[in-house]
UniProtKB/TrEMBL annotation:
<protein>
    <recommendedName>
        <fullName>BTB domain-containing protein</fullName>
    </recommendedName>
</protein>
<dbReference type="InterPro" id="IPR011333">
    <property type="entry name" value="SKP1/BTB/POZ_sf"/>
</dbReference>
<feature type="domain" description="BTB">
    <location>
        <begin position="46"/>
        <end position="112"/>
    </location>
</feature>
<dbReference type="Pfam" id="PF00651">
    <property type="entry name" value="BTB"/>
</dbReference>
<dbReference type="InterPro" id="IPR000210">
    <property type="entry name" value="BTB/POZ_dom"/>
</dbReference>
């Protein structure tokens, strides 16, 4: 009986330690997200600019080359030149901010069906394969008989 009690105590302690580790890992992840969010939204150490000009909308977003190149194969290839900026005129401000949120700290907003198709196209353009998989799964889970034609009409074949 003593052996059984000792095993139960050891198992309980091990479970408690595992839970504490999981909580610490979550805390590390939350801090990392907060830190990268602060990097994106702050002005420190930004060494690259993304310019977008379309219709009446033109703006500049300052970013970090190292973060972009580490998270996106598109940027990794594009930023090998010694340029200090890039023009991405096929996107609007909201799309660029959305994709940068994903690149910096893994946050992406799925507002509506049209947004999903746009984000899928953007994820393909920037070669963000994990985001592409997430969006494809979200689309496949969202399609039903009543909205199929709406999705299909937005896909460029």
């Amino acid at each position: 009986m003593d052996n059984n009690n000792n095993n139960q105590i050891e198992n309980a302690n091990q479970n408690q330690n595992e839970n504490e580790m999981k909580n610490l890992e979550k805390k590390v992840t939350k801090n990392l997200i907060k830190d990268y969010s602060n990097l994106l939204n702050g002005n420190s150490f930004k060494d690259f600019s993304i310019f977008v000009e379309n219709k009446s909308n033109h703006f500049e977003i300052k970013v970090h080359k190292s973060i972009l190149s580490s998270r996106s194969p598109f940027f990794n290839e594009s930023l090998r030149q010694e340029s200090l900026s890039i023009s991405l005129n096929q996107f609007n401000k909201k799309e660029m901010e959305s994709i940068l949120s994903y690149i910096y700290y893994g946050n992406i907003s799925f507002e509506n069906q049209e947004n999903l198709i746009q984000l899928l196209e953007i994820s393909i353009y920037f070669k963000l394969n994990l985001l592409k998989e997430i969006i494809q799964k979200k689309i496949s889970n969202s399609i039903n008989y009543s909205n199929f034609s709406n999705f299909y009409s937005k896909i460029e074949i």
